[in-house]
Amino acid sequence: MFKDILYTGIGAVAIFKEKVEEEIKKLEGSGKIKTDDAKSFLSSLEEKGKQSDEKFKQQLKDALKEVIDELGIATKADLEKLKEDLLSKN
Predict the structure, then answer these.
(1) How far, in Å, CA of 64 to CA of 59, rounded?
(2) How large is the average pLDDT for residues 23-52?
(3) Which of 84, 17, 78 is nearest to 46 (CA)?
(4) Is the dihedral angle over the CA atoms 35, 39, 40, 44 positive or is it negative?
(5) What's the domain count of the chain?
(6) Selection from 68, 67, 63, 88 nearest residue 78 by Cα
(7) CA angle 53, 20, 52 (to 5 degrees)
């Protein structure tokens, strides 16, 4: 279910990007926007998208860590520490 939501979001972003690029090309073709301005705008939009993506990923990681902590699920680090403790006792 989580993957479906994530893939849906990625798909929506890809479609949005295509539509924006189409509209920019139309504006360029009609002379309403300069090519340099269009490239600058697209570059700026892409950078903001990357920043939003990184922020979303961090928020998702934080939320997942919080859920794992609340549920009391052992993490990989917990299991490794337990393994080390057991091996050191032998």
Answers:
(1) 9
(2) 83
(3) 17
(4) positive
(5) 1
(6) 68
(7) 10
* Closest by CA position to 41, among listed 24, 29, 53, 28: 24
- The answer to whether 13 and 49 have CB atoms below 8 angstroms apart is yes
- The residue among 6 and 66 whose pLDDT is bigger is 66
Assess whether pLDDT exceeds 70 at residue 17.
yes
Q: Give CA 13 to chain center in angstroms.
A: 11
Range of the domain at 48: 2-89
What span, in angstroms and rounded, lies between the C-alpha atoms of 41 and 26?
14
The pTM of the whole model exceeds 0.85: no
Q: What number is the average pLDDT over the span 43-59?
A: 85
